Structure to design on (438 residues):
């Protein structure tokens, strides 16, 4: 299409045609560089049925030489500093900070205008299609890539409708893939390849982000999930569970509650809701019968019996293979408190069934000798203010021999009751499941 594009909308349609392999994938999201990249990215996200968000990048220019960047800041609290420029230009840390404060205020203003109260689209563990309306030198895109890398995506794909061929080639050294729909030669500038290249307003950016959010999440809202309350008959007990399966679910997470808790735990219910919004089916089950739960509340007889809880979890894992709705979904465990130990013991007993384990504020140390036999990649999440449990998790972490991570949530206590703490847990869990549920 050497004659160029009518406008950014048409450019987005063309670009989407080069990215069809990413359509309908729950591990992919589109991030646009505002403002001009948003209309392009909107068409890509709509065509491929993907979530859309913005990655705002603000250059930190050297005072008096603003075209020279001594760093950049970006959405998500990311800051990049060019130590070489600071050293060569004699820039002090206080001067850098004063410039950063001004740019941070503008970045915050734009995020408030564009996104409102919505949370940013999750990046960690995902393939990110980073979209702009074109590339000339690529300096802004490079800053965006550097900022994005700090948020731990699985892969970064730079995608633009038009670009200088040399810039595309250079960017291939910095990202996992570069998709440039058109690379004309000679290249005189991005605007030359659009019949209508008028400036995109803040209002247009907000409108497109709102429309993209409604279109994507409308079919994935929790109300769209199919919910069943079921009973699972095991040899020694009959257990009650709540199964919810979103449209186009890509995995199943079985929750193992902890001491003194149940499938109705508000914390696990909160995490389960967030997981379903990301396309994961959830199965929350009472691992104790009603009679056992009543007795346990009086005597604490069962809450530390992790072998009993694990056997119940194994029984539910085996039952799941007989349920037509979820039998083919890859399975992960989510354990809390003593339920984390039960999940690890069960995972060691069913190495071919369980593909990932996440522990929240757990006691994985109680899994003892089973830790060395766990084959499922394991993520241990602990609150930063939960000192004793951090030590217990570190001890267990050292005994796990498969893919593993120990993630500390700053400022969170044992129950993760602080504002935003449970959302952070859910984001970490989703990223882990995206990486390991195949």
């Amino acid at each position: 299409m050497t004659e160029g594009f009518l406008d950014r909308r048409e450019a987005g349609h063309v670009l989407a045609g080069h990215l069809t392999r990413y359509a309908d994938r729950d591990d992919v999201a589109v991030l646009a560089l505002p403002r001009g990249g948003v209309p392009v990215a909107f068409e890509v996200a709509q065509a491929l049925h993907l979530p859309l968000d913005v990655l705002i990048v603000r250059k930190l220019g050297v005072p008096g030489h603003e075209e020279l960047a001594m760093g950049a800041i970006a959405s998500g609290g990311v800051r990049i500093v060019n130590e070489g420029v600071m050293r060569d230009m004699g820039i002090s840390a206080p001067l850098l900070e004063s410039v950063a404060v001004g740019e941070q205020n503008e970045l915050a203003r734009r995020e408030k205008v564009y996104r409102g109260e919505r949370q940013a689209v999750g990046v960690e563990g995902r393939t990110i299609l980073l979209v702009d309306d074109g590339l000339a030198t690529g300096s802004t895109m490079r800053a965006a890539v550097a900022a994005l890398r700090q948020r731990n995506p699985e892969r970064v794909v730079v995608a633009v409708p038009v670009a200088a061929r040399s810039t595309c080639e250079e960017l291939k050294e910095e990202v996992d893939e570069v998709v440039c729909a058109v690379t004309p030669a000679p290249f005189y500038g991005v605007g030359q390849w659009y019949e209508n290249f008028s400036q995109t307003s803040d209002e247009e950016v907000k409108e497109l982000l709102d429309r993209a959010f409604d279109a994507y999440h409308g079919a994935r809202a929790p109300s769209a999930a199919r919910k069943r309350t079921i009973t699972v008959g095991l040899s020694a007990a009959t257990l009650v569970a709540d199964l919810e399966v979103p449209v186009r679910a890509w995995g199943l997470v079985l929750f193992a509650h902890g001491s003194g808790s149940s499938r109705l735990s508000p914390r696990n219910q909160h995490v389960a809701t967030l997981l379903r919004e990301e396309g994961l089916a959830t199965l929350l089950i009472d691992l104790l019968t009603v009679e056992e739960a009543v007795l346990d509340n009086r005597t604490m007889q069962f809450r530390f019996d992790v072998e009993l809880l694990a056997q119940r979890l194994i029984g539910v894992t085996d039952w799941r293979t007989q349920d037509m709705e979820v039998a083919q979904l890859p399975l992960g465990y989510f354990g809390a408190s003593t339920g984390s130990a039960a999940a690890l013991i069960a995972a060691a007993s069913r190495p071919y069934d369980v593909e990932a384990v996440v522990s929240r504020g757990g006691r994985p140390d109680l899994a003892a000798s089973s830790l060395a036999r766990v084959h499922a990649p394991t993520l241990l999440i602990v609150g930063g203010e939960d000192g004793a449990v951090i030590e217990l998790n570190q001890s267990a972490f050292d005994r796990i021999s498969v893919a593993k991570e120990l993630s500390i949530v700053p400022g969170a206590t044992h129950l993760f009751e602080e504002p935003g703490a449970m959302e952070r847990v859910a984001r970490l869990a989703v990223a882990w499941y995206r990486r390991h549920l195949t």
